[in-house]
Amino acid sequence: MFLFRRKKPPDPSAVRLEIILYHFVSDQRNDFTLSGHTVPTADFRRQLEYLAARYTIVRLREAPQLAATGSARPYAAVCFDDGYDCILKEAWPILAEMRIPAVMFINPPVLGNRDLLWRDKIRFLIRKGLEREFTDFLRSRRGAYRFGQLEKLGFYKWSKNPKALRNMQIQNDVNEFFARKGFDPAAIASQHNLFMQERDVAPMDYLDFGNHTWSHPILTLLPAASQRDEIGRCHDFLVSRGIEPAGLALPFSPYNRDTVAITRPLGYPCILTVFEESNFLSPGKAARPLILHRRMAPKDAGGMAAIL
């Protein structure tokens, strides 16, 4: 179940916050950067320069206080999802040089290249031309999938659409398919040094860390107990590393009342979607957690003006 929002004109006293989302920032070319949401480092730098010239860039955890502090310019925040190592190796040095804060939302099981995220497994299968074979495999799993929209959406979008999946069985099914094909996800991740190491999740300048759930499911396809496990396990991992989580970034954006209820006692300042909208924060309305929306970063330097 989604929580749908009725759009209203922004409060004239509200301050604007734009949140820009990245996944890969890299000049590497491999199965994952070529098929994922990737921004080259030179374009990343120019995008940050564009933001810094026009926005007051803040730490995301400061969002609840922004309406009260005021600014002559709108605010912006920068974040990364999934814990890819290229963010530390290629993006973080640029952030540190420019003194721009950001936050990385992680999924602990893949740290140290112990596994691939299930969406990375899907991209890998597409790069290998195996989507039809995998779809035929899924058709044998009666009751877990709705195939009516497959041709219209295309396999990639269909495979993460809440209207196509009855539950998160696809996470187990892609693992079984990998095993049948003899693909070793840890070896693939290690070959590309895809993910950061556990030791890298530590307090550091210009980079906070946040909760992206344990295994990156579509939360609305899970019962409340499973949502609590997904959010709670990642939260506990971060706290055990001396990290105060900067918020919860929702995989794919869907959430419901259970999600909010589970997150509220954790004291998170915000829950983040990818609904491609501006945020308007009004004085006196800083309830926690704030539901904030992110925009996907453009893949070139000139695209930032277009999305904002």
Which characteristics define this entry?
308 residues, alpha/beta, TIM Barrel, 7-stranded mixed β-sheet, 3-stranded parallel β-sheet, disordered N terminus
SSE blueprint:
Elements: E1 15-22, E2 24-25, E3 38-39, H1 41-54, E4 56-57, H2 63-69, E5 75-81, H3 85-98, E6 102-106, H4 118-127, H5 131-139, H6 150-153, H7 155-158, H8 169-181, H9 185-191, E7 207-211, H10 224-240, E8 248-249, H11 257-263, E9 270-272, E10 279-281, E11 290-292, E12 294-296, H12 303-307
Parallel strand pairs: 1-5, 1-12, 2-3, 4-5, 5-6, 6-7, 8-9, 9-11
Antiparallel strand pairs: 1-10
- Overall average residue pLDDT: 93
Determine Rg (CA atoms, Å): 19 Å
- Share in β-strands: 5-15%
- For the secondary structure, the number of strands is 12
CATH structural architecture of the largest domain: Alpha-Beta Barrel
Order of helices and strands: EEEHEHEHEHHHHHHEHEHEEEEH
Question: Regions with pLDDT < 50 over 5+ consecutive residues?
Answer: 1-6
CATH superfamily of the largest domain: Glycoside hydrolase/deacetylase
Query: What is the helix fraction of residues, given as a range?
Result: 25-40%
Distance between the termini: 29 Å
- Please give the largest β-sheet: 7 strands, mixed
Overall shape: it is: globular
Name of the level-1 CATH class of the largest domain: Alpha Beta
Q: What's the number of helices?
A: 12
CATH topology of the largest domain: TIM Barrel
Class by alpha and beta content: alpha/beta
Number of domain modules: 2
